[in-house]
Structure formats: structure tokens, C-alpha cells
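hey m, so remember when u said the C-alpha cells were messed up on ur end? i reran from scratch. heres the input so u can diff it against urs
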Amino acid sequence: MQQQRQQEILQEIMEKTTFYKGKINHFLNTQIFEQDSLKAKIMKSKQNIAKKTNYARIHEKTDKQKNFRKNKSRKERKQQKLQKMIYKFSDLQIE
């Protein structure tokens, strides 16, 4: 009788341990999945940041070039023309 009671108690303990092992494994699997999804989100956001900064740098350079051309004053353009003419004239005189 006592041995039968011990068997029942042992059986209960085994059932509970397998139940809790399943719960623990499920919890660990969900934790791993959540960590992987967070890592993936972090990687994706880093890639997006890199793309945006590269895009901004490229367009910043082109914008600066465009603005530099646009923002030259008339005076500067005239001076450049005069310098070119002087350079051509001096070349003609040398020959």
C-alpha cells in the first residue's frame, strides 16, 4: 500500500516536471525568437540610417555644387571672364 502511494506520488512529480519542462522550453524558444526579431529590427534600422546618411551626403554635394554655381555674383563672373580674356590676350602677345 505504501509502495503504491509512493508510485502515485512519483507519477505526479514526473507529470509536473514534464509539464514545467515544456513550459520552460516554450518560454526559452519565445525569448530566442524575440531576441532574433529585435536583432533583425536593429540591423534593419542601422541599414536604413546608413542609406539615409549616404543619400543625404550625395545630395548635399550636388546641392552645394548647384548652389555654388547659382550663388556666384555678377561681379565674380565678370572677374572670371576678365581673367580669361587677360590670359588669352597675354597668350596672343607672347606668340
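this time it looks ok to me. The chain has two helices and no strands. if urs says something different then somethings off w ur setup not the seq
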